[in-house]
Amino acid sequence: IPVALFILSAFILLIIRRILAINRALGEPSMLLELTPPSFTEKMSYTTDQLFSIIHALGTQQSFKDKLLGNKTRFSLEIVSTQNQGIRYLVRTSPKQVNTLKKNLLSYLPNLRVKTVNEYLPDNTKVLNKHFYKIMEFKLTKHFAFSLKRQSELEIHDPIAYLTGQMTKLAPGELISLQIVVSPANDKRTKKIAKLIS
Prior knowledge:
The chain is of the alpha+beta class.
């Protein structure tokens, strides 16, 4: 009986954690930082790896309460394009992470311009009454454990140019956005995936 009670309690705790995490994700306030990179930079791809390592470290800093409730820190990397404002690079994060993230970005690239901007998506009433919007979700065709191709020579081949090239020549009122939500992975799961890759 004690073992059954323990298993039942653990199962209930997992369900509660999942429900709280979903509610938190839906109701959590967020802030948008617009990043304007300099026209020329001598940063190598290695330093970009280090930047993502810093963002990963920010995401792993959690209080005991967050760990207990299963709350995860999420960062949303977004590329948004409109005819009026052109292509913009945005990072969506929680208000408590904004200052730390901004300092780390400026440490990585001192000439980077970072400013807080308003939400670019219209509210639901405008969507329903005047415009048609479509959200597409892309999924991987292979197992997610397959590693991405390393881009060691970004000055020769810029992979982001293929994405931004499709976000130009928009009609008035059109908006296109690419959003990638990142969050630190579980260490045990990461080690298991690393074994599949190597």
